[in-house]
Amino acid sequence: METKKPTAGFAAAVIILILISAGVFAQPSVHDVAGTAKLNGNPITAGSQIVARDANGTERGNFTATIDGFYGIMHVNGDDPNSTSDVISFFINGVEADQTLIWQPFGYDPNFALTACDISTYSIAVQTDSTLYYPGQDMTITGWLMNSQCTLEPGKTVAYSVPDTAIVGQVQTNGSGYFSASVTVPNDMALGNYTLWASYPPGANETVYDTTNFMVTDDKDGDGYTTANDCNDSNPSINPGVTDTCGNSIDEDCSGSDASCLLEVTTGGGGGGGGCSPSWTCTAFSSCQPNGTQTRNCTDANNCGTNFGKPNESQSCTYTPPSGGAQACTLGSRICSGNDLMECSPEGTFVKTQTCEFGCSGNACLEKPAEAGPTGNETTPGAGSPVTGFFLLEPSAWPYWILIAIIIIIIVWYLMRSKKKKKASL
Q: Which residues contact 164 (CB under 8 A, 6 or more apart)?
């Protein structure tokens, strides 16, 4: 049997198929996505443009929405069929969405929701922990990135800087949009006023920002003395030019210690000298007390912490008891006022010391209730009033009862004896 050799036409067809196959499979594969889409918090409208770009900004796919609120299926092409780590960003009508996609060959995400908010919905606020700083002092920067329409994902990058200085950096937001960074004011930073900027770019060529001002100084309290000489540069009333007040435990003049209020007394009969002179002010003397003294209080307006030159605060006097029938108030004497026991105080007046439970009598509290006396209906025999049964019950009436009982017994005995004799005669 004769074997037929392939014709030239057959060989050409095979070559064409090989070339076509090579061309098809040489094309990068795609990652298909679809889902809901919102712009500024509202569902997109039909006709909205969805664009996918790689990290270099190269367009890898686009789709024109035909239904409000939805997009897809959208083909996202890869630049390398063997790559599985390309990060794809999405844009809705030119506004970058919050979501990104890790591209996979022949990947498929049918529920890949997109949300995007333009610059008009963003705001940012920044502040520092003080408005005055020394060179070399730490500074804390805090702030918030906010959006009125979209829920911000954590990890947004906020940039901060102080122009023409070494203070520059970036910080990430948390789930609430809050950010915080700590920096150090350079030691060689010139004294003066500065402005800190914080910014966030919602999209290409878009930036929201906020500023706050601070000062780098060597005299924070503004008293004219720098931190090199001022021992408390946060208090303008403390510096080397202030006169120190003695005895208050504060070193106002930055001498290293509080001024002493002790006076130097001379031996030549003179008064005191030194840095503090007492200025005594006294109240009027009190009334004379039963102990024959009266007192007053004297204070030093300059608070020198010494008794030098202090006037007497007590003196002798002649005590005069109160006039009238009332008992004179002598220190320690007592009287009764109703159920209250009163005692004479050092001020010469009676004051209550206690309320007596069983009454007060004889300038002392009774230890038990007083026995009840006769009532209004009870009278004493011989007082001209009829004797009542209460009187007969008194112990003094018992002999009468005994005599009456004896008489009754004798009468009963006599009657019984007479009755027996009468029966015997019958």
A: none
